[in-house]
Amino acid sequence: MKISTAIVLGFLPFSCLAAKPRTDDKFPQHHAKFISASAPLKLDDALYEKLTATPRNYTLAVLLTALEARFGCQLCRDFQPEWDVVGKSWIRGDKKGSTRLLLGTLDFADGKGTFQKVPQSAEQVHDWIVRHLPAGPKPPIYRPMNYVRLVAITTAILGLVSFFSVASPYIIPIIRNRNLWAAISLITILLFTSGHMFNHIRKIPYVAGDGKGGISYFAGGFSNQFGLETQIIAAMYGTLSFATIALALRVPRMVDPRKQQIAVFVWGAVIFGMYSFLLSVFRIKNGGYPFHLPPF
């Protein structure tokens, strides 16, 4: 951490809040821990939330710090002994808890969630200060112009415009290609009609055992499926779609009548076989499904 960050962590999070006394007073329990520890209480996210929960009838002063060497906060390590002196001195002079003050230390390693709630921008700090000042006009935040960011954004925009100006003769024909968009649309349709989103929502297994030492590729029932099952169904739908498109668009354009006839029989056989396999899958999903086609 930088020195400026350490200073913020060292002094900004000190807070003092009070509330009316309650019958379920938490102060004696935590004050006893404070006395027994002979040092500021070591906090984590859960204990910090518990101690700062309102309403309460005591004051809590917390030091947010980062003592581990990996954080590089030398100021935090230098200040920690001084904070411990404050805690020990307070315990020695106020063993009965007449000031109703608790001191604690929250290290970044133990309280990442709490650190994320600490104001990290000038606007957030300004709002926090305004909330604790008497009513009346307050000076607003004025941010200086970030010329480096302005130049970077301008350069990036000009670079993109220049790139598209030069590359447009090559990019626009690709974007306007109907076959490309047809392929993208077909793949998207097959992906989602085969149950891709169902897999992500339900977190289903890829395959499962059949109870006989083998693998079950299809789950019984129309409300269940496996990950591999989705891929098989997508491949079947894709084959059927490609065969249908070939029969509708490619075969009529063939000049040779004999090749055209062979193509009709081939693609027709592919469609017939795929539909036969698809109906067999329906019977696996539901044993009472009445329709079938040979050979499956």
Give a structural overview.
- The chain has helices spanning 3-11, 27-37, 45-52, 74-93, 112-117, 122-131, 147-175, 178-193, 196-202, 227-250, 257-285, and strands spanning 41-43, 59-65, 101-107, 208-209, 215-216.
- The protein has 296 residues and is mainly α.
- α1 packs parallel to α4 (74-93) and α10 (227-250) runs antiparallel to α11 (257-285).
- The longest helix has 29 residues, at 147-175.
- The protein is elongated, with a radius of gyration of 35 Å.
- The model is unreliable at 1-23 (pLDDT under 50).
Keywords:
single chain, 296 residues, mainly alpha, three-stranded parallel β-sheet, two-stranded antiparallel ribbon, 11 helices, 7% strand
Structure at a glance:
This protein has 296 residues and is mainly alpha-helical. It has eleven helices and five strands, in the order ααβαβαβαααααββαα.
How many whole angstroms does the radius of gyration measure?
Answer: 35 Å
Helix-and-strand structural type? mainly alpha
Number of helices: 11
Secondary-structure element string: HHEHEHEHHHHHEEHH
* Uncertain runs: 1-23
Share in β-strands = 5-15%
Basic shape = elongated
Biggest sheet strand order reads 1-3-2
**Separation of termini?**
68 Å
By DSSP, the count of extended strands is 5
* Residues in helices, as a percent range: 55-70%
Largest sheet: 3 strands, parallel
Mean pLDDT: 83
Set out the fold topology:
Blueprint: H1 3-11, H2 27-37, E1 41-43, H3 45-52, E2 59-65, H4 74-93, E3 101-107, H5 112-117, H6 122-131, H7 147-175, H8 178-193, H9 196-202, E4 208-209, E5 215-216, H10 227-250, H11 257-285
Parallel strand pairs: 1-3, 2-3
Antiparallel strand pairs: 4-5
Helix pairs in contact: 1-4, 8-10, 10-11
